[in-house]
Inverse folding.
C-alpha cells in the first residue's frame, strides 16, 4: 500500500514503524509537519491509501481525516486521552499501561479504536519505557491495524467516553529534597527526557534527569553528599539519589552531566569512587560502568545517559576494558546499557564547551582509542551484546567485537553525515569488512535507519533474538558459554590473531584512522559540512526547515542498498 507518515519528527518510534512496514513492502513516504497547508499539500501530492502518525504533537486537519483513514499511535490504554499519557501513568503508579491505535477525528485521541494492547509497567525512566515496552507493543498493534485495513474486514470499535488528561507541566514534576526517595524517583522518571524534574540545587533552579537510588550514603535533605564520575548524590528525607544530568532553568540552557552543569560549584563536593572489579553489585548506587564474571566469562556493562560518550567516559571505559583483559577469562561480553547501546560522541558536552572544535577532536580520538583496544585484543574473544538502539560511532563500537548479537527490534543508525561529519571510529575498516565497500559507503551516505532483520541479512550483525531484555541477556550468556566450551576455542583465538595480522599487512589500522581524521579535521575545524550549525540544532532541539529526511526517498534508497526479494519494488508508484 501507499502509506504516508505525518509526524512531528522522525524519532525512534517512527523509524521502527517505517522499518516494520517497509519490511512488508509497503511504500511509506514521510512528511515532517511544519504547518497545516504543507500537511494538506503532502497528502494531495502523494494520495496515499492510508495515513499513519507514529509520533505527532498536533492535530490532523479536518480536510485530511474526513477524506483519508488516519491512524494515530497513542501511548495509552483505550479510553485514555491527552498528550502526557505516559507521564501520568508513571506519576499515578499504574501497574499496567498500554498502546492504542486510534483513528483521527475532530477530538484528539477520541476516534475509533483499531487495535490496543497492554504491558506491565517498570520503575524506569519514561524514555526507557517509550523506547522499549511502548515501542514494541505499538508495533504489534500497528501491524494488526494495517492488516485489518488491508482486509477491509474491520469495523473499528467506537470508544466510550474517554478520560481526557491535561498536558503535564513542570509543576507536576517539581519536588523538594525533603520528600521521600520514591516520590522523587517517580517524578524524575516521569519527566525524563522532557521537561525534567524541577528542583533546587545550591539555591538555583535546575531540571534533573537520570535518577538512581543510593542505598548507603546518607545526609541532610538537599545536601550534595558525593559525586562520582559526573553524577552528584543528594540526600532526601529517607535516603539519597544520584542525578546524572542537570539543565539550568534559564533560556538557552541544555542538558549536561551534573558536575559540568554546576561548574566550579562542583569542585568541593566529596568524591565517592567504586572499584568496579571489587564491587559486589549488591547495594543500590550509581554505576556508569560495572563488571561481573560468571563461568569464566567477563561481562563489561556501560550505561551512559542517552548513550552519549564524552572524552572522559570513553577513557574510563577503555581503562576498564584493558583491566578486564587481565582477569582470568577468555571471553569478554560488552553489554552496553539496558536502554541504549551507544550513540557515539557527546554532542551536548561539546556544544557547551569553550572550544567545541577542540573538544570534538579530543572526543573522537578518545572513541577511536577505545575501539582500537577492542579490535587489537588477541587474548580474548569479544562479543557485543546490543540491548538497545545504536547510532553513529556506537555502531562502530559494536562492530569492533568478534561477534555482534542484537536484541530483536533495536534500531541501527550507522552514520554521521546528517550531523556534518564524515565519521571516524575505524568505520572504513569495520563496515566494509562485514558488508562490503559499496554497501558501507551507501550506509554512511544515505543515513537510513536499519532494523535487526535486514542487519542480519546483510551480515552487519551475526545474530538477533528475543524482544525482551531478560530473554536476550539469558540467551547471550548461553551463547558466550557455548563459544568458550568449543573444543576448537584455542584455534578460534589463533585464527583471530592471524586475521588481524593479515589485515594489518594489507592496510594498517593507523592508515584507516589517519584517512578518516583527515576528513574529520575539515569537518570540525573548517566546518565544511555545516557541523557547527547541525550540532547546535540537534542539541537545542531546533527543527530546521530544510530537514534532510523530508527530501529522502526512503523506500527506493533502502532497496538500492539491499533488496530483500526479487519481487520487491524498487521505486514508489506514482
Amino acid at each position: 500500500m501507499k502509506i504516508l507518515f505525518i509526524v512531528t519528527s522522525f524519532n525512534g518510534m517512527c523509524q521502527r514503524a517505517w522499518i516494520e512496514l517497509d519490511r512488508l513492502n509497503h511504500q511509506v513516504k514521510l512528511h515532517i509537519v511544519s504547518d497545516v497547508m504543507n500537511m494538506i499539500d503532502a497528502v494531495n501530492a502523494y494520495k496515499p491509501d492510508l495515513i499513519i502518525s507514529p509520533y505527532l504533537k498536533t492535530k490532523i486537519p479536518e480536510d485530511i481525516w474526513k477524506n483519508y483513514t488516519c491512524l494515530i499511535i497513542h501511548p495509552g490504554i483505550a479510553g485514555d486521552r491527552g498528550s502526557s499519557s505516559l507521564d501520568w501513568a508513571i506519576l499515578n503508579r499504574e501497574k499496567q499501561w498500554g498502546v492504542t491505535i486510534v483513528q483521527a477525528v475532530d477530538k484528539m485521541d477520541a476516534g475509533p479504536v483499531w487495535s490496543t494492547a497492554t504491558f506491565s509497567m517498570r520503575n524506569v525512566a519514561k524514555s526507557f519505557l517509550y523506547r522499549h515496552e511502548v515501542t514494541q507493543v505499538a508495533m504489534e498493534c500497528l501491524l494488526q491495524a494495517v492488516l485489518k485495513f488491508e482486509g477491509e474486514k474491520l469495523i473499528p470499535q467506537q470508544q466510550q467516553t474517554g478520560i481526557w488528561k491535561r498536558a503535564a507541566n513542570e509543576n507536576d514534576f517539581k519536588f523538594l529534597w525533603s520528600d521521600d526517595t520514591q516520590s522523587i524517583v517517580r517524578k524524575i522518571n516521569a519527566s525524563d527526557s522532557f521537561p525534567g524534574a524541577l528542583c533546587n540545587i545550591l539555591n538555583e533552579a535546575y531540571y534533573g534527569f537520570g535518577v538512581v537510588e543510593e542505598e548507603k550514603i546518607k545526609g541532610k535533605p538537599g545536601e550534595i553528599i558525593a559525586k562520582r564520575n559526573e553524577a552528584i548524590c543528594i540526600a532526601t528525607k529517607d535516603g539519597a539519589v544520584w542525578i546524572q544530568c542537570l539543565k539550568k532553568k534559564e533560556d538557552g540552557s541544555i542538558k549536561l552531566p551534573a558536575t559540568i552543569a554546576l561548574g566550579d560549584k562542583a569542585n568541593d563536593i566529596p568524591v565517592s569512587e567504586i572499584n568496579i572489579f571489587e564491587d559486589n553489585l549488591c547495594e543500590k548506587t550509581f554505576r556508569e560502568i560495572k563488571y561481573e564474571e560468571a563461568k569464566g566469562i567477563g561481562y563489561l556493562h556501560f550505561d551512559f545517559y542517552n548513550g552519549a560518550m564524552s572524552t572522559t567516559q570513553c577513557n574510563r571505559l577503555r581503562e576498564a576494558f584493558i583491566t578486564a583483559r587481565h582477569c582470568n577469562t577468555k571471553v569478554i561480553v560488552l553489554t552496553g546499557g539496558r536502554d541504549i547501546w551507544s550513540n557515539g560522541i557527546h554532542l551536548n558536552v561539546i556544544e557547551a564547551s569553550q572550544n567545541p572544535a577542540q573538544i570534538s577532536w579530543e572526543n573522537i580520538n578518545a572513541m577511536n582509542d577505545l575501539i582500537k583496544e577492542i579490535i587489537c585484543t588477541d587474548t580474548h574473544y569479544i562479543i557485543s551484546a546490543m540491548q538497545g538502539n545504536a547510532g553513529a560511532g556506537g555502531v562502530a563500537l559494536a562492530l569492533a567485537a568478534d561477534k555482534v548479537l542484537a536484541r530483536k527490534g533495536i534500531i541501527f543508525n550507522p552514520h554521521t553525515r546528517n550531523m556534518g561529519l564524515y565519521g571516524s571510529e575505524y568505520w572504513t575498516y569495520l563496515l566494509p569488512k562485514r558488508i562490503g565497500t559499496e554497501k558501507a559507503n551507501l550506509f554512511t551516505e544515505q543515513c537510513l535507519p536499519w532494523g535487526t532483520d535486514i542487519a542480519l541479512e546483510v551480515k552487519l550483525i551475526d545474530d538477533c533474538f528475543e524482544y525482551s531484555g531478560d530473554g536476550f541477556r539469558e540467551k547471550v550468556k548461553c551463547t558466550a558459554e557455548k563459544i568458550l566450551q568449543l573444543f576448537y576455542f584455542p584455534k578460534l583465538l589463533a585464527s583471530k590473531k592471524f586475521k588481524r595480522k593479515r589485515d594489518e599487512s594489507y592496510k594498517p589500522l593507523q592508515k584507516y584512522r589517519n584517512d578518516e581524521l583527515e576528513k574529520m579535521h575539515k569537518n570540525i575545524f573548517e566546518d565544511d559540512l555545516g557541523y557547527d550549525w547541525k550540532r547546535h540544532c540537534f542539541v537545542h532541539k531546533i527543527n530546521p526547515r530544510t530537514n534532510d529526511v523530508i527530501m529522502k526517498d526512503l523506500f527506493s534508497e533502502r532497496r538500492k542498498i539491499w533488496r530483500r526479494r526479487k519481487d520487491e519494488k524498487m521505486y514508489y508508484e506514482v
Remarks:
- The CA atoms of residues 25 and 89 lie 35 Å apart.
- The chain has a mean pLDDT of 94.
- The chain has 20 helices and 24 strands.
